[in-house]
Write a structure and sequence with these properties.
The complex is a heterodimer of chains A (306) and B (192). Chain A has 15 helices and 10 strands. A 4-stranded parallel beta sheet of chain A has the order 2-1-3-6. Chain A starts with a strand and ends with a helix. Chain B is built from 10 helices and no strands. The longest helix of chain B is centred in the first third of the chain and has 14 residues. Classes of the chains: A alpha/beta (306), B mainly alpha (192). Chains A and B meet through helix 1, helix 2, helix 3, helix 4 and helix 11 of A and helix 1, helix 5, helix 6, helix 7 and helix 8 of B.
């Protein structure tokens, strides 16, 4: 079994602590008991919409600093956010180029750090072999390392009769040269987890469309971001969704905030880890739904059958 | 939407109307080269097929056409591409559908690089960079959320960890080494 280090990023610890709780709970003793530790020196990944967009050199330095920390722990980075995934994954790709690695290491030397990748036990004669630091997404780790069978077995309180609109988020899927773990035309991993939890994942129009928030659009032209979100929410509502489940806290934030300005109650939105935790019988009070804008009350009543 | 549209893509529309005459003095022949410098591919290889616009979620909402923007880049109409570049959600759909493998999303990112170097720094970029050098994260810690964290029994966020001062210094050194502090105008915030 692989060893991991949590990488929660910015949005989860500072906006949706319930997601952090859920992830820790599902991966911890009550759940699948993965070998995963904390690293309190991690900084922002850094966020691609800001740093990758304005200065790739700075972006790569900051990402490499985080990767060095994981490298020194000899662990795989367990990201819970599409943004962190795409930023760090892309950085490992950049750092495969010896020219980039050299350039980065010359600066990292100023803070006493060096990125090499993780040294492997097997070696080619005297030459040591290094593998790039592995950056994984929570959803992928759940599907591949834990397995759907185990997820199903642990879901002792299956969420029957719940219709879920799954939202993957752009950076889970694209660009395909980096994100290659799921089926890219018809991604299935989150749907499978949702179904393993006993719920039904409903199909809806334009399922793979953008939530509207990425690339700085939410921060720059919020009306534009929200109007994209509204289209998505309308399609989800038309399919009769009881809740939205996503693997990305930034999409979560967008769905959760944008729906404040739409008519109607809105569809509660949660991270896939929160959904899993519910099916595994957690007390919903620990999932921090009171920090969400769209109330999950009626949804929680429905799954309790009251 | 109208107001936002005016503010963010207005530059393109008001100045570049159909019968506008553009003379050579307005063209920047090295614009394509500049885009390549910041990681974009050669815009001259664009076939102008329009697939990128067809799959762009933003183009459904506002008058924003990826293909047109790339055409301006080919011509070297640098100043007319100003103002359009922060509406791209970097969903990378255009990349997946580009038969010339041009990766238009990365062109938009290169355009953002150029804009910042021309002194056009959107306020949210400055805010995020300021947060990064102060807290090591792109958003500010929220005291209300901190209360919830305590209730849930979650530990401190990294930014409030006692050892984190060292991290802030490290981030300061890196940001200063790449001259990002000067680029964004946050020199006063950087701690080293």
């Amino acid at each position: 079994m692989s060893k991991y280090v949590y990488f929660f990023g910015c949005v989860i610890p500072n906006r949706y602590p319930g997601v952090e709780y859920a992830v820790r709970w599902v991966t911890g003793k009550e759940g699948f008991n993965l070998d995963v530790c904390d690293q309190s020196e991690f900084s922002c990944c850094p966020v691609p919409g800001i740093f990758y967009s304005t200065d790739k050199d700075t972006w790569l330095l900051l990402a490499a600093r985080n990767l060095v920390l994981a490298q020194d722990e000899r662990r795989e980075v367990l990201t819970v956010c599409n943004g962190c995934l795409s930023s760090l994954l892309k950085a490992t790709e950049y750092l495969k180029d010896p020219k980039n690695m050299g350039k980065v290491n010359r600066v990292l030397a100023q803070i006493g750090k060096k990125y090499t990748g993780i040294p492997q036990k097997i070696s080619e004669g005297k030459r040591k072999i290094f593998e790039p630091v592995k950056v994984r997404h929570y959803v992928e780790v759940m599907t591949r390392d834990v397995g759907l069978k185990a997820i199903k077995e642990k879901a002792q309180h299956p969420l029957k009769n719940v219709k879920v609109a799954v939202h993957y988020g752009c950076h889970y899927l694209r660009p395909t040269e980096h994100a290659t773990f799921d089926d890219l035309d018809v991604p299935v991993m989150i749907d499978n987890i949702v179904e393993a939890c006993g719920a039904t994942s409903v199909d809806y129009e334009d399922k793979l469309d953008c939530c509207g928030a990425g690339g700085g659009v939410r921060s720059h032209v919020i009306e534009l971001a929200n109007s994209l979100t509204q289209d998505k929410c309308n399609n989800m509502a038309a399919a009769g969704a009881d809740c939205i489940v996503t693997g990305c806290p930034f999409c979560l934030l967008q769905f959760d905030n944008a729906q404040k300005s739409f008519p109607g109650e809105g569809i509660p939105v949660m991270h896939v880890s929160q959904f899993q935790a519910l099916a595994m019988g957690i007390d919903p009070i620990s999932l921090g739904f009171d920090t969400h804008n769209v109330s999950a009350h009626s949804f929680l009543r429905k799954i309790r059958g009251t | 939407m109208r107001e936002a549209e005016k503010t963010f893509i207005g530059g393109l529309h008001e100045e570049l109307v159909e019968d506008k005459v553009i003379d050579e003095s307005q063209l920047e022949p090295d614009f394509a080269k500049e885009i390549r410098k910041y990681g974009g591919k050669d815009v001259m290889t664009c076939l102008q097929c329009g697939n990128c616009t067809g799959v762009c979620p933003i183009s459904l909402k506002i008058d924003y056409k990826t293909r047109t923007l790339i055409k301006y880049c080919q011509f070297g109409l640098k100043k007319y591409t100003l103002g359009t570049r922060w509406v791209c959600a970097t969903c990378y759909r255009c990349y997946e559908h580009c038969p010339a493998n041009l990766n238009p999303a990365e062109i938009m990112i290169a355009l953002r690089h150029i804009a910042v170097r021309e002194g056009i720094v959107p306020p949210f970029v400055k805010t995020a960079a300021t947060n990064l050098v102060n807290y090591g994260q792109s958003i500010k810690p929220d005291p209300d959320i901190d209360k919830v964290r305590k209730e849930l029994g979650l530990g401190k966020i990294n930014a409030e960890h006692p050892d984190f001062r060292k991290v802030i210094r490290e981030i300061g050194v890196l940001v200063h080494a790449s001259k990002y502090d000067k680029l964004i105008g946050i020199e006063a915030e950087v701690k080293m």
